[in-house]
Design goal:
heterodimer, A: 317 residues, alpha+beta, 6-stranded antiparallel sheet, 3-stranded antiparallel sheet, 11 strands, B: 723 residues, two-stranded antiparallel sheet, 28 helices, Plant/F9H3-4 protein (chain A)
Chain lengths: 317, 723
């Protein structure tokens, strides 16, 4: 995905998208495993299917969660700086094949006993987050109570897990910490393979600014937060991103790794033109396009994504 | 959690099953001594090289001195207010990208002074013939007013009446001298700040992260517990990460007296630190005397304070027990800071078990961002307004870390680009490297290793100035790269502090009070002071193989802590007159009204004249005060006057016995000030012994300070960010 001379022509927005894109080590499915793939999710004949495990994906966020990730930014006066962001898990839905339902059940049951202690370890979190987590984590029942019509099982698969963050940015744990905590109760959050996930599986990562080096400019331009949407499934992996660069949907192959480029994007406190700096309006177009993809995605899944609504200025309640 | 080896140390939720009895959540890693000495030597050599890339240099000091003197002159001339540096610049622990912290003592009404200052600076910004280039003047109207601007592209933060920052500066300067070992304390601070700022991005109170003073207190805590085993900055960093990544922040706060159980707050009940050798660096007496020396005047708000307010990462200010230095840290940032400590501890632990020949490379990767930004042969001239020329100037020296050495297949073009960033300050930061590290870490690491091998260790000449001891400045002009001596100008710091106290007292009518809310009974005899003053006592805190006096030839240990101590107890003027200056003040502080203060102050004006240089700031004064006036702390207003009029600086001047500035204020000047309530006219504490009427600090303004003691009015006040 990285093009050699990209940095010289990259806009700040592209730089951001590049830097926050996880590049996950991948493996190829064996022929026999390929035959077992869900045809609904993998309708195309392919020579090879490469996949990653979710654990490897989270590892990409390990250092970012601790240190933040740096995004080189070029200012209009030709000064450069690096703006740092910390990722947090904003939302995630994982749909798996029907075949795994039983094992999923057992897993959920066996971990239910530890729920209380788990809850205690977050006892200082807001009630709203707790509520949301339990609402989200209690497997598919909660979901289908909302609207049983949304998810025809044959297409989306079974909802193994979902989570939506609702706490304020300054109260959030970094992504890796959140995943680690969730994975204590949902161990398959680490072991699931992207090839086994339905195309409806996705996550959103919220990126909040830390600071920039060098400092000096205390411009409000650097208060911008981002929300990036990523698919977790292998289904889109052969979609050539260059065919549809504006949406950026899907993943690009990187030899032994898979880049999970964001297919959708929302921004918050976008002021000034730091993140839409190019003169021909390419960034602006891209922002609009990525936002509309995110919006469509959420509508398609009929999701109320708290952060998205917040970023859009939609306040509920 | 056990089945998540990769993430278990991420820390976020891994707090469930720790033993409640210990502040440490898990046993410590290998202690530095368990790692082979040869390996440590190699590792410390690399750390030394890294420190040399970011520590103060002659050039960076000069730039900062120019800026400070310029602002001092400007504000003095235009507004009649004195401005002093504090924080990392005078302490000489600033990073190349660090800001300059100044504090102005001016009119009572901070708001108006702040606005006036903004106005003056903006005028100067538009003045094409101004001496230095000012840009981006802003008034930050937080709870604590702050004027922020760029001078010569260096961020300058001007706060108001921040005596706390000056106290902290003096305190840390003294601690550095106590620890010795060629400024091991300051060198450790520089290394750890670099890691926190460039690598883990957890430094900066303005951003809800760790304040510099909080970080320095954490470093001091590590010295406090483990000083006997710490001989190099990397060992300190290692212990720092190891200890604080395992510390049970949710149950305990950090205090130099030992971990304090949060549940016991607001009462501060320290537990015995279980992890150290038991040989603590700072004795209770030392700490108490520091509090006496370097405490902050209480505002009324403080006096009514609710005590230590726990937040998420809790650190007791060594100089002010109710002050939580971690109060700037938000909950989310607390989680990340903890993760950063854990991640860093894990990484560094892995590096230190590598074969010796790989350690140098691995450590440079551990400090990758630092090295990318500042790691080239030449010390970058930070904040250069003309990056291009700087860049060109430095390029020839870049051969040691050639462009190709960082080159990675994915970003060949970017590699060229990157080196603009290393050599100059605000110019291009290493754009490609970030992509590299995220896209192809393995290959990048490989390449870096090769390049690092090519670089080798810095030449000895590179460090010459550091090893020459403390008087190396004369050698500076030979190389633009000269490293600065890290000795701060304690005289100057202390003078600033005294000025601040006097001004504060004058303006706010709140006399200088020692902080200890309830003086311990020990105050009633002089024993504690004996133990602080005398070298033998300090030596007992010394180091197995240190050279306590070797690194500070001009500062005999006996002078380290208490100014005036060289008088010796016997020679100490018996300042029996103390009581006579003090009006009988029986009212409580709360009942104290400004008018009363004024009256009192005027009544005491005589004291400097009467006593002149005979009155010195000694433990005698304090003891007497504690003996006789314990219930009437306000009389200490007069104490400040004595302080300022005394010759306290002479005995321990870094310049030896020469004609050093002998006092902060002449009594005449002081009298004038007192009779001129419009305080903007207050003159600076230039010493009576000096010829020039320049502000005291301009005598040697490049001498250090240290960043912030943020003794803010409440927990909403975030101190100025200093890096």
């Amino acid at each position: 995905m990285l093009i050699l001379d990209k940095n010289s022509t990259q806009t700040n927005l592209e730089s951001f998208l590049d830097c926050i894109t996880p590049v996950v080590p991948s493996q190829f499915l064996s022929k026999s495993e390929m035959r077992k793939l869900n045809r609904l999710w993998h309708p195309w004949e392919r020579e090879k299917v490469d996949y990653f495990t979710l654990g490897d994906l989270w590892n990409c966020y390990d250092e970012w969660s601790a240190y933040g990730v740096g995004v080189p930014v070029c200012l209009d006066d030709d000064r450069n700086l690096i703006q740092y962001f910390v990722p947090s898990l904003s939302g995630i839905q994982i749909f798996t094949s029907n075949g795994s339902v039983n094992s999923l059940r057992e897993e959920t049951d066996s971990t239910s006993e530890t729920r209380d202690s788990f809850s205690d370890s977050f006892s200082d979190e807001s009630e709203s987050e707790k509520f949301s987590r339990w609402d989200g984590c209690s497997s598919e029942e909660g979901l289908f109570e909302q609207d049983g019509l949304w998810y025809p099982n044959d297409r989306f698969g079974n909802l193994y897990f979902q989570y939506f963050e609702t706490s304020s940015p300054c109260g959030r744990v970094p992504l890796m910490d959140k995943i680690s905590a969730l994975a204590e109760r949902y161990p398959r959050l680490m072991s699931l393979r992207s090839a086994d996930l339905s195309p409806a599986s996705w996550m959103a990562v919220a990126w909040y600014p830390i600071y920039h080096i060098p400092m000096g400019r205390t411009s409000k331009d650097f208060n911008t937060s981002f929300l990036t949407y990523h698919t977790l499934s292998s289904s889109f992996q052969d979609m050539d991103i260059e065919d549809d660069p504006e949406s950026g949907e899907g993943k690009s192959k990187g030899g032994e790794s898979i880049s999970l480029l964001p297919f959708g994007l929302a921004t918050y406190k976008m002021k000034g033109d730091v993140w839409a700096s190019d003169k021909d309006g390419r960034d602006q177009e891209k922002l609009v396009s990525l936002l509309s993809v995110a919006d469509s995605w959420l509508k398609q899944l009929n999701i109320q994504h708290h952060d998205f609504n917040y970023f859009m200025g939609i306040r509920r309640g | 959690m056990n089945d998540l080896p990769e993430s278990a140390d991420g820390g976020g939720a891994a707090v469930g099953e720790r033993p409640l009895s210990s502040p440490l959540m898990s046993p410590a890693n290998q202690s530095p001594s368990e790692i082979g000495p040869e390996l440590w030597e190699t590792a410390e050599k690399t750390a030394h090289m890294i420190i040399c890339k970011v520590q103060p240099t002659a050039i960076s000091e000069e730039r900062r001195r120019d800026v400070i003197e310029y602002v001092q002159r400007l504000i003095k001339n235009r507004l009649g207010a004195e401005v002093f540096p504090y924080g990392s610049v005078p302490l000489k622990t600033y990073l190349p990208d660090g800001d300059i912290d100044l504090t102005a003592f001016g009119a009572n009404v901070e708001d108006r002074l702040a606005e006036d200052m903004k106005f003056v600076l903006e005028e100067e910004e538009n003045n094409r013939s101004s001496e230095l280039v000012i840009k981006d003047v802003q008034l930050i109207s937080a709870e604590v007013k702050l004027v922020k601007c760029l001078v010569q592209n260096i961020v300058v933060d001007i706060s108001f009446n921040q005596i706390g920052g000056l106290c902290t500066l003096c305190f840390l300067e003294q601690v550095d001298r106590l620890i010795g070992k060629n400024h091991l304390f300051k060198r450790s601070i520089i290394l750890i700040k670099a890691w926190c700022y460039y690598e883990s991005r957890i430094l900066g109170a303005h951003h809800g992260l760790i304040s510099t003073y909080a970080l320095e207190t954490l470093v001091l805590y590590i010295f406090h517990l483990f000083h006997t085993t710490l001989d190099g900055p990397l060992a300190v960093l290692y212990k720092f990460l190891d200890y604080f990544s395992k510390f049970d922040w949710e149950m305990y706060c950090i205090s130099l007296k030992g971990p304090v159980r949060i549940s016991s707050l607001p009462v501060i009940v320290a537990e015995t630190p279980e992890d150290g050798s038991g040989d603590l660096l700072l004795t209770d007496d030392y700490l108490r005397s520091c509090i006496e020396m370097f405490s902050v005047p209480l505002r009324y708000a403080d006096q009514k304070s609710r005590g230590f307010q726990p937040k998420h990462l809790n650190i007791v200010d060594p100089l002010k027990e109710i002050n939580n230095l971690g109060r700037s840290i938000s909950k989310g940032n607390f989680y990340r800071i903890r993760s950063a400590f854990s991640y860093g501890a894990k990484k560094l632990g892995q590096i230190l078990v590598q074969p010796e020949d790989r350690i140098t490379n691995e450590l440079q990767i551990f400090f990758l961002s630092t090295m990318q930004r500042h790691g080239r042969g030449q010390k970058p001239v930070v904040q250069d307004p003309y990056p291009q020329s700087t860049y060109n100037g430095f390029i020839p020296a870049s051969s040691s870390l050639g462009t190709e050495s960082y080159k990675v297949e994915n970003s060949a073009n970017a590699a060229d680009h990157r080196f603009f960033g290393d050599a100059d300050d605000l110019a291009t930061p290493s754009i490609a490297c970030l992509n590299i590290s995220s896209d192809s870490p393995k290959s990048y690491t490989q390449v870096l290793k090769e390049s690092v091998n090519a670089i080798g260790m810095p030449q000895d000449s590179d460090h010459a100035s550091l090893h020459q001891g403390t008087r190396s400045r004369s050698a500076i002009p030979e190389s633009s790269n000269s490293l600065s001596d890290l000795s701060g100008d304690y005289d100057s710091h202390f003078k600033s502090l005294q000025y601040g106290r006097l001004f504060y007292e004058y303006t706010f009518g709140v006399p200088y009070l020692p902080m200890a809310p309830m003086p311990p009974p020990q105050y009633e005899n002089k024993k504690p002071w004996d133990s602080v003053i005398y070298p033998s006592q300090l030596r007992h805190n010394g180091f197995s193989h240190g050279h306590p006096n070797g690194f500070m030839p001009m500062y005999p240990m006996s002078h380290v802590l208490v100014p005036g101590a060289s008088f010796g107890r016997e020679e100490m003027p018996k300042h029996r007159g103390t009581g006579t200056y003090f009006p009988k003040m029986n009212r409580s502080p709360q009942g104290y009204r400004p008018s009363a203060v004024k009256g009192k102050n005027q009544a005491t004006l005589r004291s400097p004249c009467d006593n002149g240089r005979n009155v010195i700031f000694t433990e005698t004064n304090l003891l007497e005060r504690n003996n006789h006036e314990q219930s009437q702390p306000l009389v200490l207003a007069d104490q400040s006057v004595n302080l300022l009029s005394s010759g306290i600086h002479q005995p321990f001047s870094p310049r030896g016995s020469g004609p050093t500035p002998s006092g902060t204020f002449s009594s005449e000047r002081y009298r004038q000030q007192r009779s001129a309530p419009s305080s903007p006219q207050i003159s600076c504490p230039d010493s009576s012994g000096m010829q020039t009427p320049r502000p005291a600090l301009s005598r040697d303004p490049d001498r250090g300070s240290f960043k912030s003691s943020y003794h803010l009015k409440d927990q909403e006040d975030f101190p100025p960010l200093s890096v």
